[in-house]
C-alpha cells in the first residue's frame, strides 16, 4: 500500500466518523503510520493538516444537515463534536459567512464555501482505460510525482544494499532522522543502472536516498557531476526528479523474502507498459522502502516506481 493509499484510508475513516469523536492517533493508526509521519504526509498530500480537514468537512456536513433536515443548531453542533452552540456558530459563520440559523432562508441566494470530500485516487492518479485497469489492478499511474530533496549514499561492491543502508542509517540517526517513524520517505535503486555497465551480478552499486528538510539539504554537498560509479566518500545530496510514474506495491512472502517478488513485479511492469499508452520515461526508477523496525531495519514492503511518458499520437 503506497503513501497515497494510506492517506486515502485515513480520509475514508474520517468521513465515516464525522459525527463521532476522531483523534489524530486513530487516523494515523488507520493509515499504518506514526503520528508525526501521518501529520507530515497528510499535509503534503492533502494540502491541509488533518485537523483542518476534519473541521471543514464537519462544517460542510453540518450545513447540509441544517438545509435539508429539521434539526436545530444545538443538535447539529453536538452531532459534529462542538461543545456549545456558540462555538459552533462562530466557526460556521467564519467558514460560510452566514449564521447557521439563517441557512434555510438565504441558501438560494448564498453560494457557500463548500469543502468536498477528497478522493486521493482521483486527484493524483490517472484513470480511463478500464480494461487495462481491471487486468492490472495493482499498477497505478501517478499524474505528477513532485521533485524530492534527498540525502543519499552509494556503495559499490558486494551486498551494496546492506552497506548503503547502514551508512544512511548512521547519518540519519546522527541528524535526528528515523526511518521507522515514517516522517521521511526512503528510496533506493541500483547506481549506476546495471544495464549500462559490464559487471557481474555480485558486484554493483546501490544508492539509498532519504527525503530531508531544506535546512538539512543546505548542509550537504552535491553528488559530483562526473560521478559514474563507485562509493561516495560521505553522504551527499541530490534532487530526485519528479514527473509521471507508474507504481506497484510489493510484499514479502511467507518466509520474509522480497527479492523474488520484486523481480516478478518488474516483469509485470514490462507486460503492462507493452499494453498501455505509455513508454519508458527518462527519470530514475525508484524503490520506496516501507515499514521499518525500531532499529530502522527494513522489514516491510516496497513500492516500485517507473518513469513513464505518453506515446506520441
TrEMBL record:
Sorted UniProt keywords: DNA-binding, Transcription, Transcription regulation
GO function terms (MF aspect): DNA-binding transcription factor activity; sequence-specific DNA binding
Superkingdom in the source lineage: Bacteria
HTH araC/xylS-type domain boundaries: 8-106
SUPFAM superfamilies linked to this entry: Homeodomain-like (SSF46689), Probable bacterial effector-binding domain (SSF55136)
Annotated InterPro entries: AraC_E-bd, Cass2, Homeodomain-like_sf, HTH_AraC, MarA-like, Reg_factor_effector_dom_sf
DNA-binding recorded as keyword: yes
Transmembrane region(s): none
PANTHER family noted in UniProt: RIGHT ORIGIN-BINDING PROTEIN
Protein name per the record: AraC-like DNA-binding protein
Organism of this sequence: Lacrimispora xylanisolvens
Lineage: Bacteria, Bacillati, Bacillota, Clostridia, Lachnospirales
